[in-house]
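[#protein-structures] MJ: dropping Lutropin-choriogonadotropic hormone receptor here for a structure pass
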Amino acid sequence: LILNTKNLLHIEDGAFRNLPRLKYLSICNTGIRQFPDLTQIFSLEAHFILELCDNLRMTTIPQNAFQGMNNESLTLKLYKNGFEDIHSHAFNGTKLNQLILKDNKNLRWIHNDALRGATGPDVLDISSTALESLPTYGLEAIQVLNATSSYSLKRLPPLDKFSSLLEAVLTYPSHCCAFRNLRTEKRNSLLSIFDNFSKKCESTMRKPTNEILYRDDSYNTSQWSAEKNMYPFATDEETSPYSYSAIFDDSEMTGFDFEYDFCQPKILTCTPEPDAFNPCEDILGYSFLRVLIWFINILAIAGNFTVLLVLITSHYKLTVPRFLMCNLSFADFCMGLYLLLIASVDAQTSGQYYNHAIDWQTGSGCSTAGFFTVFASELSVYTLTVITIERWHTITYAMQLDRKLRLRHAVPIMLGGWVFSVLIAVLPLLGVSSYMKVSICLPMDIETGLSQAYILLILVLNVVAFIVICACYIKIYIAVQNPELVAANKDTKVAKRMAILIFTDFTCMAPISFFAISAAFKVPLITVTNSKILLVLFYPVNSCANPFLYAIFTKAFRRDFFLLMSKLGCCKSQAELYRMNYFSAYTSNCKNGSSATGPSKATQALLLLSALEK
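AK: finished. C-alpha cells for Lutropin-choriogonadotropic hormone receptor:
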C-alpha cells in the first residue's frame, strides 16, 4: 500500500520487479505525474487487484501499461485520478475481470483500440466521467456496464458490440430504449426456441426418474441419485448425468445463460427505464404522422408565404385589415417552420432516435423549435382575436367614420401582442417549464408550481380568446341577419363563412386545451404518443386554414395576387378584369355618396359584407 504520499512524485522503472506472490497493489493519493512501470511484476496469483486512486497529476494511461503484471484474472480499479485519455493497446496482454474507471472527471477519450490485445473485461464502470464515446473494439465480453452520471456520453456504439451484456446502468433513459429494442429483436429471434424449451423443460421435470433422456455414463450415478430430486438437471454437466443435449443442440442454446432455474433465460436489464414523457419511439411515433406532417407543414409555409408576399408587394394602401393579416400570416408561417424542423429531425433520426435524443432535446435545435411553436401559437391566437374584434367594431360602427380603427391604433395593439408572445415563448428558456421534457419540444414540464401556473395561464388565455372570437362573430351574425340590410342569399353566405371560421378555431383549440388542462393538473388523459396525433392533426389547423379563410379566398387578395402576377408577365387578362371591377365599384360608391344625405340600405349591406371579406 502506497497511500497519502503527496510528496512522492516519481516511481522509477523496475521498482516493482519479480513479485510472484503479489495479490494486491494500491497506489493512492500521491503526487505521481507519470504512470508507473508495472510491467515487471510477473505475479503468479490466480487473481490480481491493482488500485490507482486520487492521483490527480497522472493524466495518461500509455500503451502496454499493464502487460506482464499477471497472466490470470486481473481487476483494475483506476478511479478518481487525473486521467484525460487512454492510449491504444493500453490494456494489451491482460485478462480483465473488472475495469473500473469511475470518477475520472477529466477522462474524455478512450482510444478505439485501447482494449485490443486484452481479454474482457466482464465489468466496465465509466460512471462520472467526461467520456463522449466508447471504443467499438473490446466490448463483446462486457456483462455489466455502469455509466451513471456520464452526461457527455450521448451516443452508444453499435448495439451488436454488446453481445454478452446482461446489465446496464446508464445516465439517460433513451439509451435503455436501444437495449430494449435489442432485447426485443433477440427475444423474437429465439422465441420459438425458448417456448419449445420451456415446455420440454417443465415436462421433463415431471417425468419419472427412471426415464432415460441422455446420460453421461462416466458420472457416478449413485452420487447423483441423492441429488436428482432437488436438481433433476444441474447447470454443470459434470454434476448431472442429464445434459441439455437431451432437449436441444448446442447451436439452439446460443443466447441463453442458465443457472439452476434453467427454465427461464437471463434477460438484459437496463436502468433508468424510459418515462411517460419519453417513450421508446421516434419523434413522431406513428408512420402515418411522418407522412402527414410534411403535407401540413408545406401547406402552412407555402400558403402563408404567398399571403405575406402578395400583401407586402401590393401597391394599394396598407389598411388595418391588411396589416393584421400580415401579422397573422407571419405567425402561422413560424408554425410551419416548427413543423418543418420537427419533420426534418424525425426523418434524420428515424429508427435510431435513442442515439440522438439527448443532443436534440438538450440542444439549441429543440429550444428553437419550442420557441417558434409557442411564439407562433400565441401571436396567431392574439392576432385572430384582434382581427375578429376589428371586424365587429367595423360593422357595429360602420356609419360612424370618426370611430373607425386606424393604423395608428392597430400598430401599438399588435406591438403589445408581439411583446406578450415573445415573453411567453422565452420563459421556458429561463427555467419556467422547459422545452427539453419531450421530443416534440413543447413546454410540458409541470414539476414546479411556477411551471404549472405558466401552462395554465397559456391555456386559460387561449380559452378566453376563443370565447371572445365566438361572441364577436355571433354579434356580427345578428347584425347582418337584419333583412333590411342584407338579402337572404348574402345572409346565408355570411353565416357559412363565420361558421367555418369558428369551427377551425374550435377544432384547433378545444382538443389541445382539454387534454392540456387535465395534464396541467397532473391527471393526464392521454399519453405523449397519442398527443403527437393532436400535434399534427389539430394543433396546426389554424396555421393551414387561416391564409385561405382570411386572405386567399377573398376577392381583395385575388385582385392583389393577379396584379402581382401581371407584373411578372402572367395572368394579365385576369388582372385587367379585377382592375376594371375595382374602379367601377369605386366610381359607383362615389356617385351614391354625393347624391344622398346618407348611405342607403344596400350600401350598408355592401359595407358589412366587405368587412367580412377583408
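MJ: nice. The two ends are 87 Å apart (CA to CA).
AK: one more thing. DSSP finds 14 helices and twelve strands in the chain.
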